[in-house]
Amino acid sequence: MSTKVKPIVLGVNIDHVATLRQARLSINPSVTRAAMDALDGGADYITIHLREDRRHIQDFDLVDLLKKNININLEICPSGEMVDIAIKNRPKFCCLVPEKREELTTEGGLDLINNYDQIESAVASLSNAGIAVSLFIEPVKEFIDAAKSLRATSIELHTGNYANTKDEFQDIELAKIREAANYGKKNQLIVNAGHGLDYSNVSSIARLNSLSELNIGHSIVSRAVTVGIKTAVSEMKILIERKI
Ligand code: PXP
Q1: Residue 205 to residue 220: CA distance in whole angstroms
Q2: Closest protein CA for atom 4 of ligand 1
Q3: Residue 235, Cα to own-chain centre: how many angstroms?
Q4: What pLDDT does 104 receive?
Q5: Is 218 marked active-site?
Q6: Residue 59 contacts residue 29 (beta carbons within 8 Å)
Q7: Which residues contact 44 (CB under 8 A, 6 or more apart)?
Q8: Which atom of ligand 1 is nearest the CA belonging to 97?
Q9: Which residues, other chains included, contact 231 with Cβ-Cβ below 8 Å and sequence gap of 6+?
Q10: Per the residue annotation, which of 16, 49, 56, 158 is the catalytic one?
Q11: Would the pLDDT of 140 be above 80?
């Protein structure tokens, strides 16, 4: 019997291509073109976060990307307005994330305990529309149990604390992610991870056998400024595949 481990799938988040475009309210750079180039470079799907404040990705980006039949993982907060947009457009995947107006980027996972009812309704509405739902959470058992009882398909473990620490502190964060990933997988959830991952810290995360997918944005788009998005994605893909 083969014991081959499935390769980790890479979702490339292209929000910051839109950040650059919105800086001038221009049509350039093209988010759809960037998505196609990222796929050429080895991205397995494209992730976009349609924020309530529309600071980067706009509603028309979602429409344009889906028109091109691009596999989209749509990140949204679990509000009624955003869930309705997802249901109207029907991406294959939706990842529910918390949102705060003042934050520079998503700052942590969903509080599935205190917002249980709102998230339960969002998961049910999206699932009934045939959209697979992932919940972005901290690597904590209590939240994994809640994600399971909320009937999410997947969880995405927040790797921000891992990315923002060093040495033995980073080892502690990595151990939390490893333990949470194993626990999620044992509970029949698809376990993904993301936030703050870059070319220097991705390998230890890519070596975790219980993880299925990684979502990476800022570091890839930053590298793309100098080498182009296709090369930036393929360099990341090599690190993930070789786990080096
Ligand atoms: N996963 C989630 C749920 C996110 O909100 C983000 C940022 O939008 C990412 C992954 C990607 O994070 P980064 O841009 O730091 O790679």
Answers
A1: 16
A2: 195
A3: 19
A4: 76
A5: no
A6: no
A7: 9, 10, 11, 71, 213
A8: 3
A9: 41, 224
A10: 49
A11: yes
